[in-house]
Design a protein that fits this description.
alpha/beta, 5 strands
Length: 293
């Protein structure tokens, strides 16, 4: 290697700059090919050599044999990406985390003394020489005493027999009118309890549909609905008078009332997407036959 460097310097002094760089490029590739491998395995120094050579020699692509020129450019980009990733990495800052032994001790004291709060536990820790702030103890207690909340799937499963879902969907007619279809679905047997059609839905009309769907004290315990503005004050008072508790989904979360959404999608895909609705009477006849089916 020393001899190669001296020879390269000598040729450079004689004015053979292009020849020196081409000679270096070819010799470096021959050294890589001499290694005992079916496919030459380029090392980090090989890639660094070609990255530096690409910035030094204009005609470096003409002497490149082992890999494609785009590969050398990719090596350089990957090196830049790793370099800037290391420089922009977040350094650990802020207060040090609480020691694991202190966390375990606080949890044990809270489990053994359920009536103790953060001030009492903080005072007991100070008595035994454990230096920790009351705010830290309060934060640890919130993490350990947070009651587990049931998921939506668990809620739907637990209240399946006493739960109904309600929702609106629109159907355009032949003349361009838009009809609103109100659907009530019982979760226990996935049965359509009631449906009706109107062109101008209001809170009074929607409340009347619930009364018609559940006469003679047959109202369910829970009703799952979205946050549509049609469910106004009159509708909520009527539901409360019937003893039905409303479960309101989160904004823009149709997955929280999946049974009604699945029913509406089935009605569209299996029936309404294949016919042209002439009017309200025609739509009512179609949906009645679909409900019987």
């Amino acid at each position: 290697m020393i001899f190669l460097v001296i020879r390269a310097l000598a040729l450079t002094c004689r004015g053979h700059h292009e020849l020196v760089l081409e000679n270096l490029a070819l010799r470096q590739q021959l050294n890589a090919l001499r290694r005992k491998a079916v496919r030459p395995k380029l090392r980090t120094r090989d890639r660094l050599f070609w990255v530096v050579l690409a910035h030094t020699w204009r005609h470096w692509r003409s002497a490149l044999v082992l890999v494609e020129p785009d590969t050398v450019v990719r090596w350089h980009r990957e090196w830049l990406r790793r370099r800037w990733t290391r420089r922009s990495a977040r350094r650990r800052a802020g207060h040090p985390s609480t020691d694991a032994a202190i966390r375990t001790l606080v949890h044990k004291m809270a489990a053994a003394n359920p009536l103790w709060g953060a001030p009492r536990i903080h005072g007991e820790l100070n008595k035994v020489g454990v230096a920790v702030s009351e705010r830290t103890v309060s934060r640890l207690l919130r993490q350990s005493r947070r009651p587990p909340s049931q998921t939506w799937r668990t809620f739907l499963t637990n209240h399946m027999a006493t739960l109904v879902s309600m929702d609106f969907f629109t159907v355009p007619t032949l003349t361009g009118r838009v009809l609103f279809v109100f659907v009530l679905l019982a979760h226990h047997r996935r049965r359509i309890v009631h449906f009706n059609i109107t062109e101008h839905p209001t809170a009074e009309w929607t409340a009347q549909q619930v009364i018609e769907a559940f006469p003679d004290h047959t109202a369910p315990r829970w009703a799952l609905r979205d946050r549509d503005a049609v469910y106004g004050d009159i509708f909520r008072r009527r539901m409360a008078g019937m003893g039905i508790r409303e479960v309101i989904s989160s904004p823009s979360s149709p997955w929280q009332y999946p049974h009604a959404e699945r029913l509406i999608e089935s009605m569209r895909r299996e029936c309404l997407d294949h016919v042209i609705v002439l009017g309200e009477r025609h739509l009512r006849r179609i949906l009645t036959r679909y409900g019987v089916y």
